[in-house]
Design goal:
Layout (H helix, E strand, L loop, with lengths): L2 H13 L7 H17 L4 H10 L6 H11 L2 H16 L6 H9 L6 H5 L2 H4 L6
């Protein structure tokens, strides 16, 4: 299967499960997506474009875990533009989503420790 199509399939498969997700449900999908991106560096621009299109279609947790691991600069730039556009438009429903996506790019993203320490290898302090 094409790796870009597989990434989309992973994101949508988790989304199709509906409801709230625990880390144990998100991590298998996100871990496979992360491995997929890392195994196809020649397709990085295509992966970035796919991640930019995922908000609203894939669970935020999936996108956040992937971005914390991958730190894709094109995705970060696109999410920064979306956040600025939401602020300029006074769209206070969209702004928090992009703020949370951007927080996942940071080294000290709390969710990596609080919820996803199993994957990121950080001790769960809570």
């Amino acid at each position: 299967m094409d790796p870009i199509a597989r990434l989309r399939e992973l994101a949508l498969a988790l989304s199709d499960r509906h409801g709230n997700f625990g880390a144990d449900e998100v991590l298998p999908y996100a871990a496979e997506a992360i491995a997929l991106v890392r195994s196809h560096p020649e397709r990085l621009a295509e992966f970035e474009q796919e991640f930019v299109c995922l908000p609203g279609h894939a669970p935020p947790e999936f996108i956040e875990v992937c971005m914390h691991a991958l730190r894709l600069p094109g995705v970060r730039a696109a999410f920064e533009r979306e956040r600025r556009a939401a602020i300029a438009a006074n769209d206070w429903r969209r702004e928090p989503a992009f703020r949370h996506y951007l927080m996942a790019f940071e080294d000290d993203w709390e969710d990596a420790v609080d919820f996803y320490s199993e994957y990121f290898g950080k001790p769960n302090v809570r």
